[in-house]
Amino acid sequence: MQEWYRSRALYEAVLKLVNSGKTEEALQMADGIPDRMIRSKAFSHIAIEVARKGLDYGEALERAIKAALDIENHEESTKALMSLTFGFLNLGKPDEAMRISRYITDLSNRSKVEAEVALTLAKAGKVSEAMEIINGIMDEDVKTWAMSRLASQL
Predict the structure, then answer these.
(1) Which pLDDT belongs to residue 60?
(2) Model pTM?
(3) Are the C-beta atoms of residues 47 and 57 closer than 8 Å to each other?
(4) 52 burial level (CB within 10 Å; 0-12, 13-18, 19+)
(5) CB proximity list for 106: less than 8 A, separation 6 or greater
(6) DSSP code of 127?
(7) CB 134 within 8 A of CB 147
(8) DSSP class of residue 75?
(9) pLDDT at 1 > cutoff 80
(10) E-strand spans in the chain?
């Protein structure tokens, strides 16, 4: 329990550092968070905030992916990667979202993320790119759903 409270306190400090533009300090502090899920959440927040500000987020993103993959519980690791993916998708960065999705090993969840990326691309007028992604979706139910949504958007 002590580890969780310490992790939460460090997480709150990381948020304050990144929000005040102290990215390097935030990354260093996030490294010291003992709870792997909270550490992953901290690195994801840093990566998304740095990207939102239009700064170079490459290192922060790589560390966020690594932290998510370090979570021992496979379901929680998948959730962390999906959250990171949707964070970048919401920032209008579908290429990064697609790249992150490749780390999701659960077929159904990876397919859902790929479908959302494809639909975002279609909304932006990149229908052929969207179709290419949809055709590559392995989960047939998700592929059918994505095709149906794409057709209704056109």
Answers:
(1) 95
(2) 0.91
(3) yes
(4) middle
(5) 74, 78
(6) H
(7) yes
(8) H
(9) no
(10) none
